[in-house]
Amino acid sequence: MSAPSMTLFHNPASPFVRKVRVLLIETGQQDRVALQACVPTPVTPDAQVVQGNPVGKIPALRLADGSVLHDSRVILDYLDHQHVGNPLIPRDGSARWRRLTLASMADGIMDAAVLVRYETALRPVEKHWAPWLDEQRNKIRRAVAELEQDAIAELTSHFDIASISVACALGYLDFRHPDLQWRTANPKLADWYAEVSLRPSMLDTQPPV
């Protein structure tokens, strides 16, 4: 087995990192990538990450030639061009735009959930902005409801960029925001997630307890 040719700067708690790791496993590329742990926050960037990504966010993927790709959407697109199986991001046509739109909706859930996490975990309670927190949670509820209403058949049809992104978003809600109880109003999505969460790629990338 050859040594990994790429390095992924990652934190196992990040849903954006998890998307990349799930795709690596689903496409059989996990042995090509070494994992470099880092824990950047909005106020304490990681020095190694900043060298290749001045914004300081993860995931960031350092390639064999030393160049660095970021953010998760770019990394996923790159990795999906590096394997010989069926693409997990449709290359063209209406399917491409629909699957990427579903993935974008999942990213929106993650964005809002991470922002709520930062606000509640890093800022003093007396500085929490309640209306802002409420609207971030409402974004999550609206997006999950849209997936419940209009996307179950599509998510079930393929475990690709859309399904990976939604699964990682829902997993992050379970991890950081169980109080939202997203399953209560979304039983079809809950059933779908119960099934896909048993895939080896999802089991192997569960966030730390």
From TrEMBL:
<dbReference type="InterPro" id="IPR004045">
    <property type="entry name" value="Glutathione_S-Trfase_N"/>
</dbReference>
<dbReference type="GO" id="GO:0005737">
    <property type="term" value="C:cytoplasm"/>
</dbReference>
<dbReference type="InterPro" id="IPR036249">
    <property type="entry name" value="Thioredoxin-like_sf"/>
</dbReference>
<feature type="domain" description="GST N-terminal">
    <location>
        <begin position="4"/>
        <end position="87"/>
    </location>
</feature>
<dbReference type="GO" id="GO:0016740">
    <property type="term" value="F:transferase activity"/>
</dbReference>
<protein>
    <submittedName>
        <fullName>Glutathione S-transferase</fullName>
    </submittedName>
</protein>
<dbReference type="InterPro" id="IPR050983">
    <property type="entry name" value="GST_Omega/HSP26"/>
</dbReference>
<keyword id="KW-0808">Transferase</keyword>
<dbReference type="Pfam" id="PF13409">
    <property type="entry name" value="GST_N_2"/>
</dbReference>
<dbReference type="Pfam" id="PF13410">
    <property type="entry name" value="GST_C_2"/>
</dbReference>
<dbReference type="InterPro" id="IPR036282">
    <property type="entry name" value="Glutathione-S-Trfase_C_sf"/>
</dbReference>
